[in-house]
From TrEMBL:
It catalyses: Endohydrolysis of (1->4)-beta-D-xylosidic linkages in xylans. The keyword Hydrolase applies. Keywords: Carbohydrate metabolism, Glycosidase, Hydrolase, Polysaccharide degradation, Signal, Xylan degradation. This is endo-1,4-beta-xylanase. SMART domains: Glyco_10.
Length: 322
């Protein structure tokens, strides 16, 4: 068998991709790669608060359902992203002049409705995303300013009330290795565990862009979260280079990129992490060119012509020969 997902399944490994609803409706080549090569799916945007809540009191589950239904139809697990995040909230919500009671009620209702709807079809939720700032302080978002850090506890408890069998994760970027931010996340989730919060795991996003974490440091970081009794997943991986690190020609860059994907796959296998998700299917689907002009724009496993890249082979070989 030659497909990435088969090689992964032989190792009880989940190899995932972030997907968009639009190409699921219109792009046969995209769908073919997705169903053949991946056994785990996450919605890149469709399950975020902004897309789900176009108007006060209104939910639009069309895109989210399209992603979840496609995954279930193709025997793929689903990671849902995300219930509480300062980014991509609805515009009307950003302008809303709420009281603390109204914000609490709004958030509880959102978590109950979204997590409840997918209680039987989603395996994992990113309950709270990116609550810690890069310097290790708590991010000053509206929930933190209104309720303090216990807003995380509430979100996890509300999710657990309606989806007791779903794994509940805290997810963040720039905290892949041991550093000031992952130290702060470690302390945060330890306090949550002390308070009896139903948290199951920590997602390391692994956007390896401006800086790449050292591999030993990633291993050490994974171990300490696991020592707390938490699961770890690699949740949003992509690999790009600044001009100074870019070998310059595509062949050399793709080899270097493949090495990094290989190293992270190996760390996962070494440390008992059984899930790795890449943040998009083909290079042409990646968010990076829209956000960073100075980074190389080919961070994923498939090129823009639907062909697998060296990074794809690197992951497959590692899983097959570990
Ligand atoms: O489809 C909409 C359209 O309806 C809208 O009117 C138009 C104008 O804004 O743009 C389109 O929405 C864009 C959306 O991507 C879909 O392409 C949003 O503007 C744009 O902000 C959004 O960017 C997403 C970004 O999160 C938002 O912060 C990226 O696709 C998505 O890849 C990225 O994902 C995040 C994770 O959720 C969390 N971790 C970091 C990661 C990368 O930033």
């Amino acid at each position: 068998n030659d497909r990435l997902r088969d090689v992964a399944e032989d190792r009880d490994f989940e190899i995932g991709a972030a997907v968009a609803a639009q190409p699921l409706r219109t792009d046969p080549a995209y769908k073919k790669i997705l169903r053949n090569e991946f056994n785990y799916v996450t919605a890149e945007n469709a399950l975020k608060m902004g897309p789900l809540r176009p108007d006060p009191g209104v939910y639009d589950f069309n895109d989210a359902d399209a992603v979840v239904d496609y995954a279930r139809a193709h025997d793929q697990s689903v990671r849902a992203h995300t219930l509480v995040w300062h980014n991509q909230t609805p515009e009307w919500f950003q302008e809303w002049d709420y009281t603390p009671e109204q914000l609490e009620e709004f958030t509880r209702e959102h978590v109950h409705t979204a997590a409840g709807r997918y209680r039987d079809t989603v395996d994992t939720w990113d309950v709270v995303n990116e609550a810690v700032a890069d310097d290790g302080t708590m991010r000053e978002n509206l929930w933190y300013e209104t309720f303090g850090e216990e807003y995380l506890d509430d979100a996890f408890r509300w999710a657990n009330e309606v989806a007791p069998d779903t794994d509940l994760y805290y997810n963040d970027y720039g905290a892949d290795g041991v550093n000031v931010k992952s130290d702060a996340i470690y302390d945060l989730v330890e306090r949550m565990l002390d308070r009896g919060v139903p948290i199951d795991g920590v997602g390391l996003q692994m956007h390896a862009l401006h800086e790449k974490p050292g591999i030993d440091s990633v291993a050490e970081n994974i171990r300490r979260f696991k020592d707390l009794g938490l699961d770890v997943e690699i949740t949003e991986m992509d690999v790009a280079y600044l001009p100074g690190d870019d070998p310059g020609d595509q062949e050399a860059r793709w080899e270097k990129q493949a090495e990094f994907y290989r190293d992270i796959t190996e760390v996962c296998l070494d440390e008992g992490v059984d899930t790795m998700i890449v943040w998009g299917v083909r290079d042409s689907d990646s968010w990076i060119p829209n956000w960073f002009e100075n980074l190389t724009g080919d961070p994923l496993l498939f090129d823009s012509g639907n062909d697998p890249k060296p990074a794809y082979d690197a992951i497959k070989d590692t899983l097959a020969n570990y």
